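Entry
Fold in token form

___
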Amino acid sequence: MEAPEIKANNSNQQTREYVLKKVNECNCEILALVVPKAKIMSKFDTIQNKLYHYLCNILLRDISYDGDLYIIIDERDTNKLIKLNFENYIKRNYNDGKRKIDFHQIKTFQDNGLQVVDFIAWAISRKWNFNDDSYLHLIEKNIRINEIWK
């Protein structure tokens, strides 16, 4: 039997703090983009997938790594063509030909890492949408946030 997906939005304060404190204990770097959706979504409504691709590409350019790249993302789009276009976009714009890019789109409940990312995104959202940095503060040593199109 599969364990249910945990999401920050549906969790209590104790669970949120526990997950984020565990992230803070990890030797990891978290890169995040903050985009004012209200300002830009009306302009990009018809090309939302392209905007999403572009923003992911910005994040990938900021990653420092050696060797192959293994990308896991939430299976947010069910259209196979959109998934393929996204994968091709990332490979075309990021692959230098020297490294292999392994690309996986899976449902969030299938990967604990994606569930942790949900908590991180939720903490960022609390800061920018509600001026509450109490959760983001728990992971501040690991996170680098880039605000674009302020």
About this structure: The chain has one domain: 11-36+49-147.
